[in-house]
Write a structure and sequence with these properties.
Elements: H1 10-16, H2 19-27, E1 45-49, E2 55-58, E3 62-63, E4 71-72, E5 81-86, E6 93-98, E7 104-109, E8 119-122, E9 127-131
Antiparallel strand pairs: 1-2, 1-9, 3-4, 4-8, 5-6, 6-7, 7-8
The structure holds fe (iii) ion.
């Protein structure tokens, strides 16, 4: 269940987001594989919700799944991710959403790496990125 602490009208979201971000996050769309801006990124930092800015995933949990979408083996905080069964397109999948604003993020699958065995498969368009400066090379 999504708590929907953040309420905005559809018109507010349309104004805040690009048309692609709106289609994906508010209408449960999907970006084509290997087209998003983050699927191949190895930069260190934090991925936040493109809609509400909630920190969702760290680069420390990002890995190359080969799927063409940014993939993480765990969220920063599980309480920030809402899940729901998605039976569309003849598949049963687990949809993931931002707990705070209900943004569609992608899906979570049970074919990820250890230690969780999970793959949080997220649309780049659902994310913003905040790079982290590296402290003196430590
Ligand atoms: Fe959000």
């Amino acid at each position: 269940m999504v708590s929907h602490e953040i309420h905005k009208s559809e018109e507010d979201w349309r104004q805040k987001l690009t048309p692609e971000q709106y289609r994906i996050t508010r209408q449960k769309g999907t970006e084509p594989a290997f087209t998003g801006k983050y699927y191949n990124s190895k930069e260190k930092g934090i991925y936040t919700c493109a809609c509400c800015g909630n920190p969702l995933f760290s680069s420390e949990s990002k890995y190359d799944s080969g799927s063409g979408w940014p993939s993480f083996w765990q969220p920063m905080n599980e309480v920030d991710i809402a899940t729901e069964t998605d039976s569309n397109y003849g598949m049963v999948r687990t949809e993931i959403m931002c707990q705070h604003c209900g943004a569609h993020l992608g899906h979570v699958f049970e074919d990820g790496p250890e230690p969780t065995g999970l793959r949080y498969c997220v649309n780049s368009a659902s994310l913003d990125f905040q790079g982290k400066e590296i402290d003196g090379g430590v």
